[in-house]
Write a structure and sequence with these properties.
By secondary structure, this protein is of the alpha+beta class. It has one domain. The chain has one helix and five strands; from the N terminus they run αβββββ. The protein has a five-stranded antiparallel β-sheet, with helices on one face. A hairpin with a 2-residue loop joins strand 4 and strand 5. The radius of gyration is 14 Å and the shape is elongated.
Length: 101
């Protein structure tokens, strides 16, 4: 799935935030996030923003975010949505390239 409007990405992130909060209170499952699987893109801040999410597998869902400007990576992040006993935990790992954007 490929979306090119920043509104879609922003809306998706807002929904995700609310969904994660609700799941944290209800003890939801990582499989509840399956609708996010795929590739999401938009043009923003002078470059392309992209999120890629793998389908949930067991108690985890892996994702990646990147911002590429002028063909060079400026910022990228990896995520692991993991089921803990009473909540879904998001474990981010962030990186910023040495290239000045």
């Amino acid at each position: 799935m490929n979306h090119s409007k920043s509104t879609t990405l922003i809306l998706g992130l807002l929904i995700l935030t609310g969904l994660e909060s609700a799941m944290a209170q209800s003890g939801g499952s990582v499989s509840d996030l399956g609708w996010m699987a795929g590739t999401w893109t938009c043009e923003k801040w002078g470059g392309e923003m992209k999120e890629i999410w793998a389908a949930p597998s067991g108690n985890t869902m892996i994702g990646m975010f990147s911002h590429v400007k002028a063909g060079e990576p400026g910022f990228y992040e990896f995520y692991d949505h993991r089921k803990e006993p009473r909540r879904i935990e998001v474990l981010p790992a962030s990186f910023r390239s040495e290239i000045d954007h």
